[in-house]
């Protein structure tokens, strides 16, 4: 099977049952993406497919051969961290760090959703979005943090977004 | 996960031609793969339909929308026409799941998702929906999230979709392609099945029948709302929910379309509720009568008894919101 991951062509021959998550971790050595619950409940496995964040545990690798797959390993440019990575460091947006790659991938794609004008459950209007802490919490609810570093995660995302609290 | 064969269909006709025992279509896969990991679903063949040209939303001649079955939940919720004309649908979708799941899950798949009854998921527990005839551990078990209307001795599972509740209030029609090549149009009102003696049969689809589109008729005049009560502020299934469209003219309710989630094995709609409202003034007594019509036959199973008074209060509050400041 042929894949495009972080802009590079990769080949692997996983079992047809392999999730995209298992392809990344077990077949391609891209272990930055984490397996938490393996059932789409925790968000640790979040990757960005064709610009959209998804749970890589709940999709088959074989179904993504034509897609542009972006993982946590593809966000930095050389030694220069992606602004979201730098903000998580600056704001100490983690404790154990296990959920962090998923949080960061999710946050990066989430800000693109806001840029595209997507409303959320807490948006007062479906047609105008103002990012604030309530919006960040709602939009990031698919990423759990067992250490409960949420206040600092929200600080990091708010910093990158240039939003107000 | 059990082994299976995989193929990718390049047309709806090719997809349905592969129908047979153990064959399942896969699109977003967010519920099917979850169930396959637990071996609750054990298909022998998956037909990948994600490359079919069914991801568009088109205007219909009568002012409605024809939604391709592969339109993602995110794209449907954010479509400008849906936001403007069917805000209850946008709101229902945004109240469900997480952003990651909404980006993957499709319109057709959302309608076909299975119950989240704990006992359906627990292979050590009896479940007639999973293993017909084995019993129902939910009755007498922990049934907080389960149904109070439309249940049977065999099953008290709820349908988990928020989207389908809004579509029920909006009178959506499901368009399919059968393995024989026929097109069928099935009103959502006729799509789902109550459990009765056969809780494993959940809808009107024949084996191998493919949902290709969901049609929304033009939206009725009136204010639209989707309101959901759940155990967490985000990313949780409904305890109870309501999709409502209500119009008031000259102090009288002229339009009332109300569908309910979390109450029953299917998105629930009861003509008696709407009959209690139409032609009446929007008063507390009328709202209470509508809630009584909805819940007079409701029956709890212990830990879900609370849903009945919760639904009554929630419906009354929602009707107040839908009618205040109205003409």
Describe the structure.
The complex is a heterodimer of chains A (165) and B (327). With 165 residues, chain A is an alpha+beta fold. Chain A has 5 helices and 5 strands; from the N terminus they run ββαβββαααα. Chain A has helices at 20-27, 83-90, 100-115, 133-139, 150-161, and strands at residues 2-5, 8-11, 46-49, 52-55, 68-70. Chain A has a 5-stranded mixed β-sheet, covered by helices on one side. The longest helix of chain A is centred in the middle third of the chain and has 16 residues, at 100-115. The mean pLDDT of chain A is 97. With 327 residues, chain B is of the alpha+beta class. Among the domains of chain B are: 5-50, 2-Layer Sandwich (Uridine Diphospho-n-acetylenolpyruvylglucosamine Reductase, domain 2), CATH 3.30.43.10; 223-323, CO dehydrogenase flavoprotein, C-terminal domain (Enolase-like, domain 1). Chain B contains 13 helices and 11 strands. The longest helix of chain B has 17 residues, at 307-323. Chain A binds chain B through residues 16-17, 19, 38-40, 43, 46, 52-55, 58-60, 62-63, 106, 110, 113, 116-121, 123, 126-127, 137-139, 141-143, and chain B through 1, 3-6, 26, 28-30, 33-34, 37, 46, 48, 50, 74, 77-78, 83, 87, 90-91, 94-95, 97-101, 103-104, 233-235.
Question: Could you provide a short overview of the structure?
Answer:
The complex is a heterodimer of chains A (165) and B (327). With 165 residues, chain A is an alpha+beta fold.
């Amino acid at each position: 099977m042929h894949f495009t991951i972080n802009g590079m062509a990769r080949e692997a021959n996983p079992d047809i049952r392999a999730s995209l998550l298992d392809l990344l971790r077990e077949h391609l050595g891209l272990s930055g993406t984490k397996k938490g619950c393996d059932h789409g409940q925790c968000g640790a496995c979040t990757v960005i497919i064709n610009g959209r964040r998804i749970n890589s545990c709940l999709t088959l690798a074989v179904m993504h051969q034509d897609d542009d797959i972006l993982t946590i390993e593809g966000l930095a440019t050389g030694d220069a961290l992606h602004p979201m990575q730098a903000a998580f460091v600056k704001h100490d947006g983690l404790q154990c760090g296990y959920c962090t790659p998923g949080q960061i991938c999710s946050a990066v794609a989430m800000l693109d959703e806001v840029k595209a004008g997507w409303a959320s459950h807490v948006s007062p209007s479906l047609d105008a979005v103002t990012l604030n802490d309530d919006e960040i919490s709602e939009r990031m609810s698919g990423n759990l943090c067992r250490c409960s570093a949420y206040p600092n995660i929200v600080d990091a995302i708010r910093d990158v977004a240039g939003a107000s609290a | 996960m059990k082994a299976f064969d995989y193929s990718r269909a390049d047309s709806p006709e090719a997809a349905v031609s592969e129908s047979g025992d153990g064959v399942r279509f896969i699109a977003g896969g967010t519920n099917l793969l979850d169930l396959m990991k637990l071996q609750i679903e054990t298909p022998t063949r998956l037909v990948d339909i994600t490359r079919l040209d069914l991801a568009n939303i088109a205007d219909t001649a009568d002012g409605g929308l024809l939604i391709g079955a592969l339109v993602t939940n995110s794209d449907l919720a954010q479509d400008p026409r849906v936001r403007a004309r069917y805000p209850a649908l946008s709101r229902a979708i945004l109240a469900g799941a997480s952003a990651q799941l909404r980006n993957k899950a499709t319109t057709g798949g959302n309608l076909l998702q299975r119950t989240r009854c704990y006992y359906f998921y627990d292979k050590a527990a009896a479940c007639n929906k999973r293993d017909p005839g084995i019993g129902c551990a939910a009755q007498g078990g922990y049934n907080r999230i389960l149904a109070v209307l439309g249940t049977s001795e065999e099953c008290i599972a709820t349908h988990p979709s928020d989207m389908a509740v809004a579509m029920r209030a909006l009178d959506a029609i499901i368009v399919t392609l059968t393995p024989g090549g026929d097109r069928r149009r099935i009103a959502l009102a006729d799509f789902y099945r109550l459990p009765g003696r056969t809780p494993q049969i959940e809808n009107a689809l024949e084996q191998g029948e493919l949902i290709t589109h969901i049609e929304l008729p033009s939206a009725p005049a009136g204010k639209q709302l989707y309101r959901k009560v759940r155990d967490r502020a985000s990313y949780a299934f409904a305890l109870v929910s309501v999709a409502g469209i209500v119009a008031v003219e000259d102090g009288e309710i002229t339009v009332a379309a109300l569908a309910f989630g979390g109450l029953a094995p299917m998105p629930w709609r009861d003509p008696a509720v709407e009959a209690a409202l139409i032609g009446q003034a929007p008063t507390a007594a009328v709202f209470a009568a509508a809630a009584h019509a909805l819940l007079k036959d409701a029956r709890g199973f212990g830990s879900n008894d609370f849903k009945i008074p919760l639904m009554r209060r929630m419906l009354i509050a929602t009707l107040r919101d839908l009618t205040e400041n109205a003409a």
